[in-house]
Amino acid sequence: METFSHLESEVRSYCRGWPTLFDKARGSHVYDDSGRDYLDFFAGAGSLNYGHNNPRLKAALLDYLSGDSVVHSLDAYTVAKRDFLTTFEEVILKPRGLDYKVQFPGPAGNNAVEAALKLARKITGRETIVSFTNGFHGMTLGALAVTGNSMKRGGAGVPLNHAATMPFDNYMDGKTPDFLWLRSLLEDSGSGLDKPAAVIVETVQGEGGINVASTKWLRGLAELCQEYDILLIVDDIQMGCGRTGPFFSFEEAGIVPDIVTLSKSISGYGLPLALTLFKRELDVWEPGEHNGTFRGFNPAFVTGTVALNAYWRDEVFQKETLAKGDLVGERLGAIADEHAEAGVSTRGRGMARGLVLPNEGEAKQVCAEAFERGLLMETSGPQDEVAKLLPPLTTSVAELEEGLEILAESVRAAVKTPQPA
């Protein structure tokens, strides 16, 4: 590891929890240079919903590259882009009654968020964006301004303005619909809140601790935005592409956001790709007004198209994901019950799940114990208090059972149950 400590910046993070040299990966497994097998419940932070080196996607990618097809094209028209767009409309948009235009803003999720925020301000002529407690939307300045984590915000080094933070669902007393606080500020001309251009929200806060917004709360928020002519942006970068079951995480709530951001698993293969989707009437961009050199990576179009065709032409994959999510939730519930006296609990929806360990450092210790036993996990939440599970959606039931047993052993090793007085 000397090469990395000598040359790579101290900003590196995941490698500190996984001190080994990874070499190969297949499906739900990653192998280090000694050949040791690790079961992956991280999936590239949700970028590998279809597993590592998915054979169907890999075959299409190799064929594309071996044929000297276009790799880099800025936003020029290419066969790969045409095929992706037509498939995305046919397989995803039309069956859901969504008439979205598609923007390729750059290679990563934060690019999609920056484009969404800029577009909302351009459309409305307003500056303020409302975001929510414990939300996370990226590490560039605009995205950081609508991110809650104080450590990440502090890294900006400049004021993060033109944003207002509101309580996420169940952040307050668990009884009052928390968006009513936003309503009261909008209704009161003395509240000091400028009328927002948009509201940006995750239906399940991944980095914020697997906090799940109820369908009732999401519908109420959408209705409030419509009432006050505020654009609704759903950040589906980590929870989209089937992570919660449906392709879009907001489908269960029956809402239609004005703008949607997608990235991570939209390429299906871990290749960089991001989309900003918006209602057709909101496409007010001038040519070249928002652009970037890598805003449409053709190999990612190829693998993304194959993923859409392979997994989303019917409801089989969605139903399998929901069933697996129920299994994971049930097993996590059993672990929490075993350690109820220590305050352990669970959160989540679909295949985005979390085990909440309230004592300082316990979740990190659980993940460290899991790593030693051959399971890759990460923490999330403002205090790193949640052991987070994001397995590939293609993980088999047997692999899920194996990983959850490793997790149960890791919790037993890490959690200290209070002794009776």
UniProtKB/TrEMBL annotation:
Cofactor: pyridoxal 5'-phosphate
An MF annotation (GO) of this entry: diaminobutyrate-pyruvate transaminase activity
Pathway assigned to this chain's UniProt record: Amine and polyamine biosynthesis; ectoine biosynthesis; L-ectoine from L-aspartate 4-semialdehyde: step 1/3
Keywords per UniProt: Aminotransferase, Pyridoxal phosphate, Transferase
PROSITE patterns: AA_TRANSFER_CLASS_3
SUPFAM superfamilies with a match to the protein in the record: PLP-dependent transferases
Enzyme Commission (EC) number: 2.6.1.76
Major enzyme class: transferase
One GO process term, biological-process aspect: ectoine biosynthetic process
Coiled coil: none
Family classification: Belongs to the class-III pyridoxal-phosphate-dependent aminotransferase family.
Protein name according to UniProt: Diaminobutyrate--2-oxoglutarate transaminase
